[in-house]
Amino acid sequence: MSLARIAIAARRVPPWTASAVEACAAVFAVLAILVASGATRGLDLATIVLFQSVASYPLDLVANAHTLVGQLVVTLAIAAVLAAVIWRRYGGYAWLAPGLILVTGAVELAFKLLVPHPSPPREFVRAFHNVLGIEGPPASFPSGHVARIAFLAVIVAAIVPGRVSVIVAATFIAASVFLRVYIGDHWISDAVAGAALGVGLGAVGAAWMRATASR
Q1: pTM of the prediction?
Q2: pLDDT score, position 140
């Protein structure tokens, strides 16, 4: 690739990309340090109690459906569909952007091995049944569900740009944070870290999509 083409690609990158990635990386790093030191235990417990204070059967249904949507196999399928949509709409190598969802998994696994943070105890779990039969690592930092969903939400918002899509994506990410804590699969520190990871990598994916589009 010539320097001229690199310069053109760089100009296509949204101006907010660097600041978004830096902010997300900072939030993730701070939470990792706090979780590793045990400083979030009080807030984690208080938050899950607060979220479950509004418990109801309909909300349980929503939370369990959300669990299914956020499973790795489902989110990878959604990422593949988005790659096809991006290829048809933008051409070039833009279709590779959804592939960064694999990086969320690598980071998630690395920190679950590095930062021992047990999931909420059984009395907080409101899951009905593990439909796909997929069991994750016992450590819960960060939330892979939230990371993958946040990543996909940012990519979708980049495909359909506009204020409405940004608001919808932000609302869905916030709801994902709430639901993962509400259902008792993660603490709030895990969920927020997952959101930071997903949004940060989603911003990188959106930048790649814009920079490498051929039309």
Answers
A1: 0.90
A2: 87
Output the six-digit token pair for 154.
């940012």
Instruction: Report domain extents, the chain.
Output: 3-212
Query: Which residues on neighbouring strands pair with residue 118, listed in sequence order?
Result: 139
Tens of pLDDT, residues 79-92: 999 999 999 999 88
Q: Is the peptide bond before 142 cis (omega within 30 degrees of 0)?
A: yes
Whether 94 and 209 have beta carbons less than 8 Å apart is answered as: yes
Please state, in angstroms and rounded to a whole number, the distance separating the CA atoms of residues 15 and 92: 21
Beta bridge partners of 139: 118
Q: How large is the average pLDDT for residues 113-121?
A: 91
41-70 confidence digits (pLDDT tens): 999 999 999 999 999 999 999 999 999 999
Write down the mean pLDDT value for the chain: 89
The two tokens of residue 104 are 């969320």
